[in-house]
Amino acid sequence: MTRIARIFVIGVLFALSAALPAAMANQNKNTPAKQEMKDTGKETGRAGKSLGRNVKHGRVIHGGKRFGQHMGRAGKHFGRGTKRTVKKAVKP
Question: What is the pLDDT of residue 80?
Fold first, then answer.
């Protein structure tokens, strides 16, 4: 790669690294508990589908990894939904 191209690529990467966290910060984190529980079920369905597709094509290890990632996200949604439900039900 020429020196000018390298400088250009580094500049673009630097600009993206500065812009992405700002874009991620604008996401609404106040979803209701009911929606979090729905997202748990959706994510669990995605886990099974991705595992099935990968195993069908002979990629068992890859499928297991993707399954674990989806189940981790499902657990995160379930935990958030439980937290919001308990906060609403039990007010100190």
Answer: 93
- Cβ count near 84 (within 10 Å): 18
The answer, as to whether pTM is greater than 0.70, is no
How many domains does the chain divide into? 1
Residues whose CB is less than 8 angstroms from the CB of residue 14 and which lie 6 or more positions away in sequence, other chains included: none
The domain in which residue 70 lies consists of 3-89
Backbone angles phi, psi at 4, to 5 degrees: -65, -40
Task: Kindly give the residue spans of alpha helices, DSSP state H, lying in the chain.
Answer: 3-25, 33-56, 60-89
- Report how far residue 54's alpha carbon sits from residue 81's, in angstroms, rounded to the nearest whole number: 30
